[in-house]
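ATP-dependent RNA helicase, pasting as requested.
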Amino acid sequence: MMERGSCRRITHLKTGISTDGPPRNLGVQKINPKRLSPATSALTRPSRRACPSFTMAGPIYKRYVPPAKPKKRAPSPQLTTPAPESREPPQRKAKKSKSTPIDRSAVVPKPQGLTTTTELHLESSIIPKKSKKETKKRKRDVEIDEPLDDETSTPKKHRAVLSKFEKSSRITEVARDKAAKRVAADGDDGEEDEGELQDKPAEELHDLGPLPQPAPIPDAPFEPTYSTLPPWLAQPTTVDSTKTVPFSDLGVEPIFLKKLEKQGYKDALAVQSALLPMLHPGSDQHLGDICVSARTGSGKTLAYLLPIVEALRDSVVPSLSAIVVVPTRQLVDQALKVAEELCAGTKVKVGTAVGHVPFATEQKQLVKMRAQYDPVRAKELREKADQQLKSGFSQRGGIFSDLMAVPENHVPTYHSGVDILICTAGRLVEHIESTPGFLLRDVRWLVIDEADQLLDQNFQDWATVLMDALHGETPEEYMNAQELLRKRRKNTDWEMILPSRRRTTKVVLSATMTKDVTKLKTLRLRRPKLVVVEDETGQEQQEVNDDDTYELPATLEEFAVPVGDGSKKPLYVLQVLLRAAFADTSFTAPDPPKQESETSDDDSSSSSSEDESSVTSSSDSSSEEEEEVNIKKGGKSASTLSEHTSRVLIFAKSNESASRLSHLLSHLQPELGAVTKTLVKSATSKQSKKLLESFGQGKIKILIASDAASRGLDILDISHVINYDMPRSVTDYVHRVGRTARAGKKGSAWTLFDRKEAAWFLNAITKGGTVKRGGKKVKRVQFRDREVTWNRKRTYTAALLELKDAVEGSKD
Ligand SMILES: Nc1ncnc2c1ncn2[C@@H]1O[C@H](COP(=O)(O)OP(=O)(O)OP(=O)(O)O)[C@@H](O)[C@H]1O
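Structure tokens follow.
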């Protein structure tokens, strides 16, 4: 690279450092500049060009002066003497040295603010490469300027840079000298100064790597401020559940006001005050469908029946104008009762379709057939009937069968036997499919009560069948004159003139109204509106809530009773009955605790303090806040069971479970057994009706039922509901406990839960956000095990054995 022997000896003026031998390639990239003093670091940056051999007398930058081309220069005595090791001709060597690249880092002007060699070095590394043209030009310049070996001959453009560099080197050296002197004077080892230096903020070095970035801001938790529901479901019309309005202010006609007063209803309850104006013709009428979510016992039945009966009051000829669909037979009976009370004294006819009467009888009640003289149509129908017969697809029954029964030139015409039909969904489908002349063309109101249950159990695809019948065209053979004319004039100007079909208003109700759009879609709602009746306190939660939430009556008290492994559940039920439901009643059993302690085996250890008839109760959410609940043991009051006003509805999961509990109760407490009855699914409509009447009248005090009785059953005097078996869902719980605390009356609900059921019950029902109870909490009531089994162990075991024998006997 360098001409041999041309730089044999380089001696620094100030430092006195001399380097023997040819300068090695001390590229700035390979030297750690931190380790070098400014002067030394300057030494480490020689030009790669060959330089003439001379002793440097000036400042170090002189070494950067590019050497003169040998051919142009006068021969130097040193150069003329070839170096002993050199075997190449000088000209070739000069050529070689010419091609040696210039170390631009040594001559690049230093940007302002950079004072140290480190900075200089780093800056040089980021200088963009010069273009080929520039490099050539530069080389040319160098050639012209050469040879320059004294201060005045340094290229002007380098001089400014180098002088700055020299100045900064000098300043650094002076500072170092001063520091060294101070150290010597203080006798200090210089640690302080080093410390001072260390205290100085470290220079921040940046290479070409990415600059450090601030830590990424964590994503905010996802809190939707929107709803995935359609606007009508997401933004319901809310009505305060405490709001009552006099019926007279709602435009109810005097005849009905009297009826309502007679029943003891002065003011309309919240759901009624909201629904009546929406269904009455007038400025507040909603020209679309209505969904209603109102808690149990809030008076929904009257809310939809009153405007319907009022509107039909003047009907002369019955036409099927309203259909009310409910899930059970009991509910049909219940709604029928309310409707009949309202229709009394009017010509409005109410009918039912439930299935406990023969189908043919029901058909006759619902549809009346008459023969009408119409030879043209009679001919048409007969031709059609013949075609059917020939094709082999003729059906028994139907209009063609009826055609044979009417005189010649006559056609059968059908008329509804009722204005309002209250029915179960299954039976309605049967009539739509199989009753000739059962047509829905005049239906103005379709009410679906307990809609969530009905939509959940879409048996026989009832919703689709009903909607097709309601919205579809009447089969041609059943068309009346108007429909026939409309059909014939279809797609003509006449079609516009002919009156269109009357629209049906759908009213969909439940205490646990679903927001499931897919399910609601099957009802083909038109311009729907959701009305939610709830507590004012609940409105805070109204924000955006796509989930289903249910509200319990404000007058309801809830209790949760842990029952261990559940093996003694009947004994726990007995405790609830004796201590809560019939607390002030005298019973012959159990024996006084002292006598019991003599007779009982492992219970004998119980102390007399436990004879106190109190149980420990606590709010479920904070088990520490235990408080004594004033639940008294029976035997102190003179009240007898027959006089007692309490009505207890116990829910069991199945007929077997209900029967078992009934059997055990009658053994454990015979007086209670005498007033206990079981309402099982297999009971006939007559039986269950009778049973419910006796229960309502108070002849029966305890009714054990399955979930069939959980929906809609309206017996105002039910004071206690006991969930003997855990409900299967939150909605089941809401409907079960909703059999008490109805229409503003007080009531309490007791739920027994074993260890396996605890997690679900406590999370989904007592704590879960699904059930709203107006800030109230479920109270936990802990019965002491000894009290539960007190003197009843033997009886209980004996009753179980008897039950076992009875079951095995029945199997045989
Ligand atoms: N305006 C009123 N004033 C007082 N009581 C009323 C009024 N309207 C209805 N009730 C009574 O409220 C009780 C509950 O009514 P209803 O059975 O219609 O409730 P519901 O909302 O349908 O309950 P569920 O959802 O459990 O079926 C009935 O016993 C009824 O007599």
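Note for the archive: DSSP finds 30 helices and 25 strands in the chain.
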